[in-house]
């Protein structure tokens, strides 16, 4: 029995494609999600800065200690 067959037996709701992606990820063959944490942090700061600018344009004070203010 192949590793993919074993995986599909353990997780029957997965498709063969999902099982293959999981096996590839476990073997380090794909890295498309490798920077997810860093990218998520960057996008959070970017969104915080945009929200801060929008609120300041509306006359509100910036949030104290917000990621937008820290320059991170």
What does this 3D model show about the protein?
By secondary structure, the chain is mainly α. It has two domains: 1-33, no CATH class; 35-72. It is built from four helices and no strands. It has helices at residues 3-10, 16-26, 36-57, 67-70. Helix 1 (3-10) crosses helix 2. The longest helix has 22 residues, at 36-57. It is rod-shaped and about 65 Å long. The relative contact order is 0.09. The mean pLDDT is 80.
Secondary-structure map with pairings?
Blueprint: H1 3-10, H2 16-26, H3 36-57, H4 67-70
Distance between the termini: 50 Å
Mean pLDDT, as a whole number?
Answer: 80
Question: How many runs of DSSP E, i.e. beta strands?
Answer: 0
Label the structural class. Answer: mainly alpha
- The figure for the number of domains is 2
What can be said about the biggest beta sheet?
none
Strand content: under 5%
**Shape annotation:** rod-shaped
């Amino acid at each position: 029995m192949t590793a993919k067959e074993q995986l599909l037996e353990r997780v029957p709701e997965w498709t063969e494609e999902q099982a293959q992606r999981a096996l590839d990820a476990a073997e380090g063959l794909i890295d498309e999600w490798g920077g997810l944490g860093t990218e998520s942090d960057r996008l959070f700061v970017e969104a915080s800065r945009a929200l801060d600018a929008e609120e300041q344009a509306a006359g509100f004070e910036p949030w104290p200690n917000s990621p937008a203010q820290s320059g991170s």
